[in-house]
């Protein structure tokens, strides 16, 4: 794939310039079977409503959204959900790593994950957690990037096939771990 740019989005960019691409990205992911909150492909309105909600979280400082852009199109995204709890300020959740079907197998997922880890370290986060469909190619990606399987929860979420599927909970320690 041509040169890929990774950048953080502002809430306003999510609501305006990037909204259509982000909606297409989530619709593409769900149509390919990704388990990212929907059991069927969301309508354009549902996808836009979702992304506007994410924009509100970005505006509040609770979430960071990164995108990968190639040829001026958004081809991937990932989110970092920062903990709002005082006893959890050192941890965050990685969520919604999505790479458009036409852009897969070009290192975009790895680039997004490395960038989100860097963003986490800049915010003094030392522990990342995530969940992913058990046995999915995304789980293999996370393992390759050094994430450790903490456990598997059976029947965790209904997949796009309608069947309750297990999820794998994974974590990775990054940066300096503060015991203060």
DSSP helix fraction: 25-40%
N- to C-terminal separation?
Answer: 44 Å
**Named CATH topology of the domain at 4-125:** Aminopeptidase
Overall structural class, as computed from helix and strand content, comes to alpha+beta
CATH class label of the domain at 4-125: Alpha Beta
Strand order of the largest sheet: 1-2-3-4-5-7-6
Question: Mean pLDDT across all residues, rounded?
Answer: 92
Name of the CATH superfamily of the domain at 4-125 = Gcn5-related N-acetyltransferase (GNAT)
The count of strands amounts to 7
- Calculate Rg over CA atoms: 16 Å
* Oligomeric state of the chains in view: single chain
Our estimate of the beta-strand percent is 25-35%
Biggest sheet character: 7 strands, mixed
Give unreliable regions as ranges: none
What's the total helix number? 5
- The CATH architecture term of the domain at 4-125 is 3-Layer(aba) Sandwich
Write a structural description:
This protein has a domain at 4-125: Aminopeptidase, CATH 3.40.630. The protein has a seven-stranded mixed beta sheet with strand order 1-2-3-4-5-7-6, with helices on both faces. The protein starts with a strand and ends in a 7-residue tail after the last strand. With 180 residues, it is α+β, with helices and mostly antiparallel strands. The protein is built from five helices and seven strands, in the order βαααβββαβαββ. It has helices at 11-15, 19-31, 44-60, 108-122, 137-144, and strands spanning 4-8, 63-70, 73-82, 91-99, 127-133, 148-158, 164-173. Strand 4, helix 4 and strand 5 (127-133) form a beta-alpha-beta unit.
């Amino acid at each position: 794939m041509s040169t890929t740019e990774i950048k953080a989005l502002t809430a306003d960019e999510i609501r305006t310039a990037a909204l259509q691409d982000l909606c297409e990205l989530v619709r593409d992911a769900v149509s390919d079977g990704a388990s990212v909150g929907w059991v069927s492909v969301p309508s354009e309105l549902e996808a836009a409503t979702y992304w506007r909600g994410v924009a509100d979280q970005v505006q509040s400082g609770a979430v960071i959204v990164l995108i990968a852009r190639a040829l001026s199109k958004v081809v991937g995204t990932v989110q970092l959900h920062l903990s709002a709890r005082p006893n959890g300020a050192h941890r965050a959740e990685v969520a919604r790593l999505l790479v458009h079907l036409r852009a897969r197998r070009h290192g975009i997922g790895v680039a997004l994950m490395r960038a989100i880890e860097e963003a986490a370290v800049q915010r003094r986060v030392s522990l990342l957690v995530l969940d992913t469909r058990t046995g999915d190619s995304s789980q293999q990606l996370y393992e390759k990037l050094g994430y450790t399987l903490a456990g598997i929860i059976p029947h965790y979420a209904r997949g796009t096939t309608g069947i309750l599927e297990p999820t794998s909970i994974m974590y990775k320690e990054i940066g300096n771990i503060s015991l203060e």
